[in-house]
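ok so i was messing around last nite and threw this chain in just to see what happens. nothing serious, just curious
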Amino acid sequence: MRAASKHMPTNQYGIPTALADNAGHHVLVLWLDGFPAPGDSEVWNWLGEDYTEFTARNTKIITVTRQNTAANRQFADRFELFFDVLSDPDGQLIAELKPKLVGTGKPEFCLINPAGRVVKWSLGRPLKTELEDLLSYLDSRRLIGDQVPDANVFELVEQAPEIIRSETLFSSQQVVLFGVPGAYTPTCSAEHLPGFLNNYADLRSRGADSVVCIAVNDPFVMDAWGQAHEVKGRIRMVADGDGSFTRAMGLALDLADFGLGKRSKRYAMILDDGVIRHFNVEAGPIVGSSSAANMLALL
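result:
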């Protein structure tokens, strides 16, 4: 048994607990300044009921408070939480992790990958929404730190489809890539693509060498959609015609009920020489974590 340390946070049972105890797993660390009021407990009810949604994705949850062990035990019992609630009155964990969280103050959460690297953190949106997006990210076959898959994608060049290997498309540069469910669809046309167009100059000034839009559409449709939004010289419109890149990423989405067939989830990522540096996947159809503004903040 580990000897108790006055500096090591303890869980709700009084057991000294360190992040290293969860090596080999993703670890979701949640910070809680105060316990939720009776009418503000939706996310904790959800975590109590659906904790297995995270464990099924090799993800452990740790909640960190400044409360004492007894108060944390009452909190965990109230919501039937099956994960550690740590007492960290001196703020040791936030002090340890904060230098790794670029562009944010104290977050509501961060995600540590199995190698021990902080890879994601809260963006200031409702916590439950962000955690649902996090589950969608964890479902992907390629995660932050991985090389994107090499697959044939297409671009229209002089009115003819041209094959591009995705490896070539992303190599030796920093690329902001955003994926959409479909060209000409309402949210993609009204919000997602225009957002990257409006922020294009700022994305470039922050270090992006190129901005790429990809969808499971044919190259003629992607080109026409780009022309309709006057993207020439700014955003490259790339077609994942048969969905091979999307499937290899684990981002396929069945929209047959809407007459669209197999498409892509909505997402955005920042790539350095083909390696995923940041990666946000939407759990639903709206533009949230994958917005141009959020990508800009991560550059």
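not much to say yet. Residues 48 and 81 are 5 Å apart (CA to CA).
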